[in-house]
Fold this sequence. Notes:
Helix 8 links the parallel strand 7 and strand 8 (about 245-250). The model has no long low-confidence stretch (mean pLDDT about 95). The chain is α/β, with parallel strands linked by helices. The chain has an eight-stranded mixed sheet with strand order 2-1-3-4-6-5-8-7, with helices on both faces. The chain has helices spanning about 30-40, 75-85, 100-105, 105-115, 160-170, 180-195, 215-220, 230-240, 265-275; strands spanning about 50-55, 70, 90-100, 120-125, 170-175, 200-205, 220, 245-250. About 45% of the residues are buried.
Amino acid sequence: MSASPPCKLKASDYISDTKPVWCPGCGDIHVLLSLTKAIAELALPPEQIAVISGVGCSSRIPAYLNCYGFHGVHGRALPLATGLKVARPDMNVICAGGDGDGFSIGGNHLLHACRRNIDITYVVMDNEVYGMTKGQPSPTTAPDWSSELVPGGPGISPFHPLVIALASGANFVARAFSGDPRGTTKILVDAMSHPGFSFVQILSPCVTFRPDQRDWKQMVHPAPVTATNDAAQAARRLMTDDGFNIGILYKGSRDKYRQSVTSDARRERDLDEEFLL
Ligand SMILES: Cc1ncc(C[n+]2csc(CCOP(=O)(O)OP(=O)(O)O)c2C)c(N)n1
Ligand code: SF4
C-alpha cells in the first residue's frame, strides 16, 4: 500500500453511479461492498486508487467504483496492473477478476506476478465457472461437475490457486467468502496493507450457472490455523485444505519489488544511439 494523506470518506462514497448488472444473488456484489469498506477503513483517497480488471462478470468491478479503473483485456489484468504500479508506485493498485480470467488465459501472468512480488493486491472472485460466457468449466471446476455443456464433468484435476501462488512467491495468501462481508473486509484490509504481492481468493457464488454454490454458506469455516510466515508449513496446510477454510493462510516477509533501474536521460540517449537502425 502506498502512503497518502488519510481521507474521510464513507464506504458508500467509493461506489460509482453505474448500476451493477450482476444477476440478483451473485456473490460479486458483496465483494464490491467489502472492497469499498476496506478502502474506507484504510482511508485511501479515490484519486490514489486504481482497480484493474480483465473480462468476465467479476471483471466489471472497476465500473462500479468511484476511483481510477481500467477494464482491460481477458486474462491481461495483471500485466496492466504491474505496469501501472511500476510506473506509478504512489498509487494503490488493486487487480480484480474471475477464475477464468486469472487462472486460465491469465494463468501465466499469475505465476510471474507472484514471483515479481510487486506491491499490488490481486482479488480473484472464484465461482469455479465462466459466468459471462454462460457456464463453461474453469480451471477450478471440480472434475465431476456435470452440466449440459460438459455432461459427466470436465474430468480434469482442478487448479489449486493458493498453493500455486505460494509456490510462485506471493507474499500474502488468503481465502475469503463473499457471503462473509465482515471477514472479507478484514482480509482485504490486511492484504492491501501487506507489502508485496498479496493474493486473495474470494469464493463468490455464480447463482445462475452454479446454483449448487448456494450451499457454500454452510460449507465455509474459519481456517483452524493462524497465518504463518513459513512457506513450507503453509504449503502443507494448503495441500490438505478442504477448499473452504476462510482466513489468512500465509504472510511472508520477502522484500517487495523495487525498481533498480533509475531513469537516466543520458543513458537512454546512449542506448537509442547504440540501437539505431
Ligand atoms: C481473448 C478472449 N478470449 C475469450 C473471451 C471470452 N470470455 C469472456 S469472459 C470469459 C470467461 C469469464 O470467466 P471468469 O473470468 O471466471 O469470470 P466470471 O464471468 O465467472 O466472473 C471468456 C472465456 C474473451 N472475451 N477474450
Ligand atoms: S452469470 Fe453468474 S457470475 Fe455472472 S453475474 Fe450472473 S451470477 Fe454473477
